[in-house]
Amino acid sequence: MTDPSRRQVLRGAGLLLAGSAALALSGCASTGPSALYELTATPEVPATRKRAVQVLVARPRALKALDTDRIAVLENGLQISYFPDAAWTDALPNVLQSKIAEALQDTGALRGVGFPGEGLLIDYQLQTDIRTFALTTEGADRAVVELAARLLDDRNGRSVATQVFRAEVASSGLTAEQAVSALNRANGQVLAALTAWVIGTV
């Protein structure tokens, strides 16, 4: 059971109590967020031989609760809301798409990495689903990032491989800054594993 001080902090983060199977979404602050946060973790992946392939990074899919620039807080696996005065620099799927492409580009192992509409002759398409990307307060406070990924052969549309990547990192507290720090570390672990998987598969 959450103690009174902990409940006060969670209320400050905007958590709303809903029914046992309901998902509660807090409204956006009318004046907008006072702080914008970026995902900064760029994983280091060991250098490998260069592949003569080009990979398209599709925009990650996400449910409406995560297809937003708001930073999510999850309690009891059922109730979700957002830090009222903080946000990502863009909608989370857009930020992640950029970071995934950046991580792949930084390996130097691919001939090219691009986005839809750029006119590249694509060999593979990387599709991802954002399953979880939130500070969770069930049990120990921690950041949880989980992505489901699929590689498609863009020449015939066939699925080449699928994999789920997940990381949990303890948070030092329940402020937006502490949550973002933990989320960055968790995301860095996920991107490192995702990048190595892509490079090893194509």
TrEMBL record:
Lineage: superkingdom = Bacteria
Q: Can you give the residue ranges of the ABC-type transport auxiliary lipoprotein component domain?
A: 37-192
Q: What is this protein called?
A: ABC-type transport auxiliary lipoprotein family protein
InterPro entries, per this entry?
ABC_trans_aux, TAT_signal
Looking up PROSITE patterns in the UniProt record yields: PROKAR_LIPOPROTEIN, TAT
Signal peptide annotation: 1-24
Keywords attached to this entry: Lipoprotein, Signal
Gene3D superfamilies, per the entry = ABC-type transport auxiliary lipoprotein component
